[in-house]
Amino acid sequence: MAERIPHDDWAQWYDAIYEATYGDAYRWLTDETLRAVLEKACPGDAILDIGAATGRLSVPLAAAGYRVHAVDRSPSMLRQLLARATESRVGQRITVQCVNASELDGAPTFDLALCVFTVLLYLPDRAALAGTLAAIASRLRVGGRLLLDVPRRELFVGYRAETDQVERLVQITPDPSDSDGRRFSYRDDAFLKSPFLVRVSEHFVATWWPEHEVLEEATAAGLELESDVSPRFTRAASAHWWLRRHR
Ligand SMILES: C[S@@+](CC[C@H](N)C(=O)[O-])C[C@H]1O[C@@H](n2cnc3c(N)ncnc32)[C@H](O)[C@@H]1O
Question: Which of 65, 75, 107, 162 is least surrounded by CB atoms within 10 angstroms?
Answer without folding.
Answer: 107
